[in-house]
Structures are given as structure tokens and as C-alpha cells.
Amino acid sequence: MINQHKVSIFISRTEKGFNYFSHDKLFIMQGAVTDKMDYLSLNIEESWHRHIANEWQQPYYSELVRFLREEQANNQLIYPPAEQVFAAFENTPFYSVKVVIIGQDPYHGAGQANGLCFSVAHGVRIPPSLNNIFKELNRDLGIAKPSNGDLSAWTKQGVLLLNATLTVRAHEAGSHQKKGWEQFTDAVIKAISNHREHVVFMLWGNYAKKKGEIINREKHLVLDAAHPSPLARTGFNGCGHFSKANEYLVKNNIQPVDWRL
């Protein structure tokens, strides 16, 4: 059965460039000359599509797709897997977002990146940054460190786990920066800032803090801290962001997040 709450966006290469097709319930390609489906075959929850659909038509996005296709043609290994590139949007509809955590780019080690910033799948060793997040959760809210690093339970409660850059070349941190992803995620953040109220944004590290420049701080709560990486300067431990977020949500009659995993 087709999920009627998602919109499929398919990007394919034609003789004249890139075409973008969408249909609310079913994708049908008619009259297009294609060699293969693009790396980015997307399943985007419908409410997001309403706010970011224009991005598929922007020149920067065509260039981004072109870059990713070149990476494929050169046999570069890209993380996360294609079907997980937009995983952040799958369980967190636009009108359900209550907290946004912004990361930098996906983990670049084998088997780590899953499309959710800072998260890893069950059975994958917890990375140092995520381990520090769990330490702060324990200090802030007394939550015991979980046995795995899968944060998908948060996404189902309205926590958008968004990396600023949605793909990366294996073992090369930052390799897909300044290729267009930042413009796309800026559009996502602007849409939330402009069309929602009382959302908590957690900006960890200078890269994420720059994203905060486009957030309306009169409508939303913006929490800044150092990056949770052990390599970052001190400032994440003790930030208290998880309790502060819940206090703000409750104050605005919004269900707080259960941060337990």
C-alpha cells in the first residue's frame, strides 16, 4: 500500500539536463529520456514538500545533483546510503517539529551515518560526540546512558535531527560542504522559522551557530553551546539544553520531549 502522507520526488538525468517529477501518491515517468534514476530518489513527508518544493527547481540544487552524480561516476563511496539522505524528514512532519538539533555533516566512517545528525543505528559503536551528548543528558536530566546510539525515538516526538550538509565522502570529513547542501538546509530552517512558532533550536558549535543567524529569535528559543566533540573547546558539558528546551515547551503549552531512549 502506498503511503499517502509522503510525496516522492524523483530526479533523473535527461538529454537536456535534470528533470524533477513528483506525484502525491505514485510516481509515473512519461516521455522522459533517462539513463538511470539519480542517486537522489527521495521520499519526503508531504508537509515538508509544501514548504521546500521550490528548492528542487533552483540552479544550486541542479548543480548539487550533478556533483553527486559525478561522485558516483568516480566510484566514490558516499554516506549515508541514498535511501537515508533525507531520513531526518521521514518521522518528523513539518507541523510536528518542536526541537531542531543542527549538526555539521554526516559521520564519514563505515556504517555510521543514517541521515539523522549525531545518531547511529543499533549495533554501531557510539561515537565520541554522541557519548558526550548522553553524558550531558545524564547530568542535566538524570537519564542513564542508553545501550545504543539510535536517536530515531526523538524524531517521532518532533525532534528534527538535521545536518547542515546531508552527504559526505567516505573518510573525508567536510568533503561535500559548499556544494549546495547548506543552501537547502538554510531553506528548511527559514521555513520553520517563518511558518512555525515556539520551536527550540539547539546550535552546537560554530558551524551550527552560523545557521542561527536566519532564525527569528522573537518567535523561537535558540540555545547555543560548544560542539559535543571531545576535540571542541569546553562549553557543551553543563549547557543544560535538554531541560531548558522542555521548560520552554511546557511554558508554551507544548508537550515536552521524553529524551529517554
List the SSEs and their pairings.
Elements: E1 6-14, E2 17-23, E3 37-45, H1 46-52, H2 59-73, E4 78-79, E5 99-103, H3 128-141, H4 152-155, E6 159-163, E7 168-169, H5 181-195, E8 200-204, H6 206-211, E9 221-225, H7 241-251
Parallel strand pairs: 5-6, 5-8, 8-9
Antiparallel strand pairs: 1-2, 1-3, 4-7
Brief write-up:
The chain is α/β, with parallel strands linked by helices. The protein contains seven helices and nine strands. The strands form three sheets. It has a four-stranded parallel beta sheet. It has a three-stranded antiparallel beta sheet with strand order 2-1-3. A two-stranded antiparallel ribbon has the order 4-7.
Q: What does it look like?
A:
The chain is of the alpha/beta class and 261 residues long. β1 and β2 form a beta hairpin. The protein is globular. It has a four-stranded parallel β-sheet. 28% of the residues lie in helices and 19% in strands. Mean pLDDT is 85; it is low at 1-37. The longest helix is centred in the N-terminal third of the chain and has 15 residues, at 59-73. It contains seven helices and nine strands; from the N terminus they run βββααββααββαβαβα. The protein has helices at 46-52, 59-73, 128-141, 152-155, 181-195, 206-211, 241-251, and strands at residues 6-14, 17-23, 37-45, 78-79, 99-103, 159-163, 168-169, 200-204, 221-225.
